[in-house]
């Protein structure tokens, strides 16, 4: 089954698919968990922006990540729009069954190219994570649910240091061979520079078609946009981003948010790529969540946009 956003991606080589991960990656690291209503309002705002893919939460242990508690309840309260694909992160069968029970039609499984990170994040080895995912993928197939894969620590791991590009390619290919329709490569701690990102894509693209690969860049050292530019040069056309640059990972201390959706939009639109985004609605969503969190928006473009509007 081809979704609306896949149709756009494949029928128009100038189209870049953006997966908005703010409600999940963005909020999973907040010191004080947001209320369900605040999480829902963020997603309702994002639904007005033209974004076609929104990761709304994760069905993980609330003891491990309290910020994502009740993501299934949240999902069930959202209006469904046939042009918007929601997804939920599910590390195992239990999480998948929760997502399935509320009618979610896309989930994401997540592992890493680093053993230590996988242990800290999902309490198992990389091989064990694949055992859990094979149960998820088998059940997903019988219910016609799409499964996306994530590989974390594609350049550096907070516990092991540098990770080999070949290991990243191996884990990504394994996820695709198992049945994931797309794999997002997570630069989890934001230390990468374009030269190192190039080597990761070189290794992956030797085995995997670019259409199956997404870039997920955290912006700790301000390198995310440079890394996305590098990725675009190598043919990658799918990127994850977070409204107002929210985000981080509870198991990667010091890592900051994802590239902001606003800055990604600016880069892509100025380079002539289509995203389907309504700029005013995007800026409204980013202003609303920044107000809820009482936080200065780190997006350069959002700040410039509001300064120009107020001048
Ligand atoms: P575990 O302790 O090994 O699991 O945790 P378990 O199977 O032994 O079960 C222990 C307890 O957890 C039991 O409850 C289970 O029922 C419960 P108890 O009997 O103690 O009351 N449990 C669950 N509850 C809800 N949903 C579930 C679930 N599974 C078990 N799905 C587990 C394993 C994976 C659950 C745990 O390690 C976990 O929840 N980890 C959180 C991982 C996470 O959310 N990390 C952040 C997202 S990944 C990320 O940010 C990176 C990414 O953005 C890309 C990048 O930037 O690199 C994607
Ligand atoms: Mg992330």
Automatic annotation (TrEMBL):
Keywords of the record: Lyase, Metal-binding
Family annotation (InterPro entries): Aldolase_TIM (IPR013785), HMGL (IPR043594), PYR_CT (IPR000891)
Superkingdom classification of source: Bacteria
Record has Calcium as a keyword: no
Single Gene Ontology MF annotation: metal ion binding
Gene3D superfamilies registered for this protein in UniProt: Aldolase class I
Domain Pyruvate carboxyltransferase positions: 16-283
A single BP term in Gene Ontology: ketone body biosynthetic process
Family statement drawn from the similarity comment of this UniProt entry: Belongs to the HMG-CoA lyase family.
Name of this chain's protein: Hydroxymethylglutaryl-CoA lyase
Origin species: Acinetobacter lanii
């Amino acid at each position: 089954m081809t979704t609306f956003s896949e149709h756009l991606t494949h029928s128009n080589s100038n189209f870049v698919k953006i997966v908005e991960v703010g409600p999940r990656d963005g909020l999973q690291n907040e010191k004080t968990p947001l209320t369900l209503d605040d999480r829902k309002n963020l997603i309702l705002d994002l639904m007005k922006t033209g974004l076609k893919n929104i990761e709304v939460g994760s069905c993980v242990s609330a003891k491990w990540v309290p910020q994502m508690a009740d993501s299934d309840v949240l999902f069930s309260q959202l209006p469904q729009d046939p042009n918007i694909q929601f997804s939920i992160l599910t590390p195992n069968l239990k999480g998948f069954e929760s997502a399935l029970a509320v009618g979610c039609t896309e989930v994401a499984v997540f592992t890493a190219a680093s053993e230590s990170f996988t242990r800290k994040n999902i309490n198992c080895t990389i091989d064990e994570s694949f055992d859990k995912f094979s149960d998820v993928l088998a059940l997903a197939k019988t219910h016609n649910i799409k499964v996306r894969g994530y590989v974390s620590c594609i350049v550096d791991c907070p516990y092991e240091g540098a990770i080999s590009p070949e290991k990243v390619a191996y884990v990504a290919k394994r996820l695709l061979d198992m049945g994931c329709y797309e794999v997002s490569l997570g630069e989890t701690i934001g230390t990468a520079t374009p030269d190192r990102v190039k080597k990761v894509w070189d290794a992956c693209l030797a085995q995997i078609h670019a259409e199956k690969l997404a870039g997920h860049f955290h912006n700790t050292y301000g390198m995310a946009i440079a890394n996305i530019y590098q990725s675009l040069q190598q043919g990658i056309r799918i990127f994850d981003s977070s409204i107002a640059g929210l985000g981080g990972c509870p198991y990667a201390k010091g890592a900051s948010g994802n590239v902001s959706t606003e800055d990604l939009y600016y880069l892509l639109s100025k380079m002539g790529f289509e995203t389907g985004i309504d700029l005013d609605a995007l800026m409204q969503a980013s202003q609303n969540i920044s107000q809820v969190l009482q936080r200065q928006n780190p997006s350069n473009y959002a700040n410039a946009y509001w300064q120009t509007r107020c001048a």
